[in-house]
């Protein structure tokens, strides 16, 4: 799998969704989706894009189990956090409050673990991170 391509394309999807929600809020005058909009743009677009650039710029080994866990954890965590947040705050399906809460928490936890893995990668593969 090309980590950079996967992360950049996924971040583009989140950028579009975040911009669409922002446009919808601006046109409708309501700010009920502002937390969801912000998280989609920050963790969905910005973080995934930055991770994609990180893998392009620095030669982190392609067979690194940490990198594989990081990429998939980031992908699943961003999806779980943002969709869970939408389910939790927008309540589009009445009666799913417990499911929404669990989905939101599990997604956020997976994303937090992915960020911890990124921290480990930065230190474990630090020899590859250089201005040279």
Summary?
This protein is mostly helical and 132 residues long.
Your description of this structure?
The structure is a single chain. α1 (3-28) runs antiparallel to α2 (34-57). The chain has one domain. The longest helix has 28 residues, at 97-124. The two termini are 26 Å apart. The radius of gyration is 16 Å and the shape is globular. It has helices spanning 3-28, 34-57, 65-90, 97-124. The protein is an all-alpha fold and 132 residues long. The chain has four helices and no strands.
Write the layout of secondary structure elements.
Elements lengths: L2 H26 L5 H24 L7 H26 L6 H28 L8
Helix pairs in contact: 1-2, 2-3, 3-4
Q: Give the N-terminus to C-terminus distance in angstroms.
A: 26 Å
Based on CA inertia axes, which overall geometry fits?
A: globular
- The counted number of beta strands is 0
Please tell me the total number of domains.
1
Low-confidence stretches: none
- Determine Rg (CA atoms, Å): 16 Å
The biggest sheet amounts to: none
């Amino acid at each position: 799998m090309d980590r950079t391509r996967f992360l950049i394309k996924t971040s583009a999807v989140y950028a579009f969704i975040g911009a669409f929600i922002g446009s919808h809020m601006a046109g409708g005058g309501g700010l009920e989706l502002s937390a969801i909009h912000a998280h989609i743009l920050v963790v969905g677009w910005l973080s995934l894009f930055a991770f994609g650039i990180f893998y392009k710029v620095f030669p982190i080994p392609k067979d690194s189990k940490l990198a594989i866990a990081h990429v998939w954890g980031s992908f699943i965590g961003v999806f779980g956090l943002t969709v869970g947040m939408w389910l939790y705050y927008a309540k589009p399906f009445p009666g799913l409050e417990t499911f929404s809460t669990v989905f939101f928490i599990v997604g956020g936890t997976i994303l937090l673990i992915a960020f911890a893995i990124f921290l480990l990668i930065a230190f474990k593969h630090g020899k590859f991170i250089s201005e040279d």
